[in-house]
UniProtKB/TrEMBL annotation:
GO terms for biological process: Golgi to plasma membrane transport; intracellular protein transport; vesicle tethering involved in exocytosis. It comes from Eurypyga helias (Sunbittern). The keyword Transport applies. This is Exocyst complex component 6. PANTHER family: EXOCYST COMPLEX COMPONENT 6, SEC15. Gene3D superfamilies: Dsl1p vesicle tethering complex, Tip20p subunit, domain D, Exocyst complex subunit Sec15 C-terminal domain, N-terminal subdomain. Residues 380-691 form the Exocyst complex subunit EXOC6/Sec15 C-terminal domain. Keywords: Exocytosis, Transport. InterPro entries: EXOC6/Sec15, EXOC6/Sec15_C, EXOC6/Sec15_C_dom1, EXOC6_Sec15_N, EXOC6PINT-1/Sec15/Tip20_C_dom2.
Length: 698
């Protein structure tokens, strides 16, 4: 800056001073070169001297190098071979190491494929789990592992679909075969009940061993033989008949449950299973429209239901959580309500008591079977009491027809017995006792007609039929006794009473038949106490028990007798009216015939013969009938005289009418029915006598 900023010509002076400085440095360099030049010359001279030696050395080194290279070629080749081998060895070791990691994966995958092939799906899922968690992460860098990883979810879905398909096949199979399962379970329940009954009888037979030791040794041996045979028969039966659970292969359910549980979809599977089983329950509970026509329809219905709940009970006890007790109880309560509704509806169509009895037996076996599996069945036994009333109604209808047939076939004549054997046959059927009749010689007649022992036998048959329904209802002897007495009372007070009332009202039943009906009802009434004894012997309940009901036969047969008596009075009066209608009085006749009118004599003869039939009736009944007939005859004759159309009457007609009245009084005084006191019967004609006297005086 000073050069350019200073005075003019400063640059020139600077250049001059710079040239002077350069010349000074050149002189110094020249001095130094002159100083070192000798050394340089000496060095060059030394180099020239060693030049020849260097060339010799170079030749020797080159030759040595050549010879060394020739000698090292083989070593190099061996070394390279060694290097290559060591590289291969290292690669092999690496491959072995990697294969050792891959082989378990491949083996597990192969095992997985084999398990899928033999349908061991649960094991296959476990193998997949091991592959994913243990083996595949070690070799995840390989492409085949990626393929495996991609295939595993597909295999899981395939396993789920296959297991679900097997489950659907299982559900369809048990739906089709539930009746066979239920039938087997019901048979086993019956066998168990029979076996328990045999054991109970065995214990009862051994109870009196201390009292009759000698005799009970034989009983004991017989009972042991019987029990042994029972065991042997049961063993043979067990060998022949599988249990209800053995008839079903539950492996599809277990397999599907395990598979879905492993896959984390256990809840989905449980919901699906329960939903499908509810649908099947609704189908099982739906009866056929013609179920009530045959017992097989009911048996198949019950078998299907039992089979359904046997399967559910087995699933409940062998699986954890698939079904719960709450679920089965809810399903059973729903089913029970439906069953009761169905049975109420269909049993109401049953008019055959035998079919109703078969239905009752099926319900008992059905209830006992399901009770053995832990299901509450009290409502079924309550239903049986409703069906029992219906059963009694069907019995009453059936016995009503039997009673009608017996009454239609009866000849309403005393039973003739020619010898002792015939007599014993009759009294073996009917409890008849008459010491006076026993003293008579054969042949003789029993007072009742043939319908009496037949009715008595049919009442006993009714009691037996009613007892059949009361069996196996888990009721006490007192309750059964009460049931039998109530049903028998219904038979007597409603059915038999109705049949008797209808019989009495039939137009073809005459006075003789009515008299026999009164006699018959008297003997039937006396037999009621024997019916009570019969029921007590069946139920082992003494009649002195406070709550024991009594039979109402007394009132039933009394009502029938009263109706028959009233019908006798009515028919007698009707017959009298028929005779009166044929009376043909000539009220203008000049003189009488000198004897009673023909119609009146015929009427009196009819009454006399009729009252002779009344000898077997209670005295009061015969007396009442006789008094009623005489009063009606008196009133009828009185109405003839008081007829408004009668304008005049001659003395001859009065005398003829007087003869008829005298004949009536003679009939009354002849005591056609014994037992009247004094002139009681003649008082029936007292008004007519006064009118007659007044006419004669007039």
């Amino acid at each position: 800056r000073s050069v350019y900023d200073d005075q003019p010509n400063a640059h020139q002076r600077f250049m001059e001073k710079l040239d002077a400085c350069i010349r000074n440095h050149d002189r110094e360099i020249e001095k130094m070169c002159n100083f070192h030049h000798q050394g340089f010359v000496d060095a060059i001279t030394e180099l020239l001297k060693v030049r020849a030696d260097a060339e010799k050395l170079k030749v020797q080194v080159t030759d040595t190098n050549r010879r060394l290279q020739d000698a090292g070629k083989e070593v190099i080749a061996q070394t390279e071979e060694i290097i290559r081998c060591r590289v291969q060895q290292r690669n092999i070791a690496t491959v072995v190491e990697k294969l050792q990691l891959c082989l378990p994966v491949l083996e597990m995958y192969s095992k997985l494929k084999e398990q899928m092939k033999v349908k061991r799906y649960y094991s296959a899922l476990k193998t997949m789990e091991q592959l994913e968690n243990l083996y595949l992460p070690r070799v995840s860098q390989y492409r085949f592992c990626q393929i495996m990883i991609e295939n595993l979810p597909k295999l899981r879905e395939e396993i789920k679909e296959i297991s679900m398909s097997d489950l659907k096949d299982f559900l369809e199979s048990i739906r089709k075969h539930s009746d066979r399962i239920g039938e087997t379970a019901m048979k086993q329940a019956q066998q168990q009940k029979t076996f328990s009954t045999t054991l109970q009888k065995q214990n009862n037979a051994n109870y009196g061993r201390n009292m009759h030791l000698g005799r009970n040794r034989m009983l004991e041996s017989k009972n042991e033989i019987t029990l042994k045979r029972t065991f042997e028969e049961d063993d043979e039966h067990e060998e022949e008949v599988l249990t209800a659970q053995d008839l079903v292969d539950f492996s599809p359910v277990y397999r599907c449950l395990h598979i879905y549980s492993v896959l984390g979809d256990g809840e989905i599977f449980e919901n699906y299973y329960r939903k499908q089983r509810r649908k099947q329950a609704r189908l099982v509970l739906q009866p056929q429209s013609s179920m009530h026509e045959t017992v097989e329809g009911y048996r198949r219905y019950f078998s299907q239901i039992v089979g359904f709940f046997v399967v559910e009970d087995h699933i409940l006890h062998v699986t954890q959580g698939l079904v719960t007790r709450t679920y089965t109880d809810e399903l059973w309560n729903m089913a029970l309500s439906k069953i009761i509704a169905v049975l109420r509806t269909h049993s109401s169509y049953c008019s055959d008591p035998d079919l109703v009895l078969e239905l009752k037996n099926l319900i008992v076996v059905f209830a006992d079977t399901l009770q053995g599996y832990g299901f509450p069945v009290n409502r079924l036994f309550d239903l049986l009491f409703e069906i029992r009333d219906q059963y009694n109604e069907t019995l009453l209808k059936k016995w009503s027809g039997l009673f009608r047939d017996i009454f239609e076939a009866d000849n309403y004549s005393p039973i003739p017995v020619a010898n002792e054997e015939e007599y014993r046959i009759v009294i073996s059927k009917f409890p008849f006792q008459d010491p006076e009749l026993d003293k008579q010689s054969f042949p003789k007649k029993l007072p009742m007609s043939q319908s009496v022992p037949q009715i008595y036998i049919q009442v006993k048959e009714f009691i037996y039929a009613s007892l059949k329904f009361s069996e196996s209802l888990h009721r006490s002897s007192t309750e059964i006794d009460d049931m039998l007495r109530k049903s028998t009372n219904l038979l007597l007070t409603r059915t038999l009473s109705s049949c008797l009332q209808n019989l009495i009202k039939k137009p073809h039943i005459g006075l003789t038949e009515l008299v026999q009906i009164i006699i018959n009802t008297t003997h039937l009434e006396q037999a009621c106490k024997y019916l009570e004894d019969f029921i007590s012997n069946i139920t082992n309940i003494s009649q002195v028990t406070v709550h024991t009901a009594r039979l109402y036969g007394l009132s039933t047969f009394k009502d029938a007798r009263h109706a028959a008596e009233g019908e006798i009075y009515t028919k007698l009066n009707q017959k009298i009216d028929e005779f009166i209608q044929i009376a043909d009085y000539d009220w203008t006749m000049s003189e009488s015939d000198g004897r009673a009118s023909g119609y009146l004599m015929d009427l009196i003869n009819f009454l006399r013969s009729t009252f002779q039939v009344f000898t077997h009736l209670p005295g009061k009944v015969a007396q009442t009938a006789c008094m009623s007939a005489c009063q009606h005859l008196s009133m009828s004759l009185m109405q003839m005289l008081l007829d408004s159309e009668l304008k005049q009457i001659s003395m001859g007609a009065i005398q003829q009418f007087n003869l008829d009245v005298i004949q009536c009084e003679l009939f009354a005084s002849s005591e056609p029915v014994p037992g009247f006191q004094g002139d009681t019967l003649q008082l029936a004609f007292i008004d007519l006598r006064q009118v007659r006297h007044w006419l004669l005086v007039f």
